[in-house]
Amino acid sequence: TKVMASSPRFLANLRLLAASLVALGSLDEARKVGAAHMQIDPSFSVEKYCNWYPIKQPARRSLLAQRLLEAGLPR
């Protein structure tokens, strides 16, 4: 995708791209993006990230976490 081509090591883009691809039902592509993310940052944790991420609505934060997990990122 364009995001990965233009900034392949910019992790914020990769996380949101992975979650967006899950939302679109493109699970294979989302998992490829998730795997690329983990190669760059193997210590990433969905739980830590979502606790930090500034989404005030718990339901939206939970949905983001669920989609990141579905993209293959670790809890």
Verbal overview:
The longest helix is centred in the middle third of the chain and has 14 residues. Helix 2 packs across helix 5 and helix 4 packs antiparallel against helix 5. Helix content is 69%, strand content 0%. The protein has 5 helices and no strands. It is mostly helical.
Tally the helices.
5
- The arrangement of helices and strands along the chain is HHHHH
Global shape: globular
Look at the structure and give the mean pLDDT.
92
Q: What is the count of β-strands?
A: 0
Regions with little confidence, pLDDT below 50 for 5+ residues: none
Largest sheet: none
- Cα radius of gyration in angstroms: 11 Å
Annotation keywords:
globular, 5 helices, mainly alpha, 75 residues
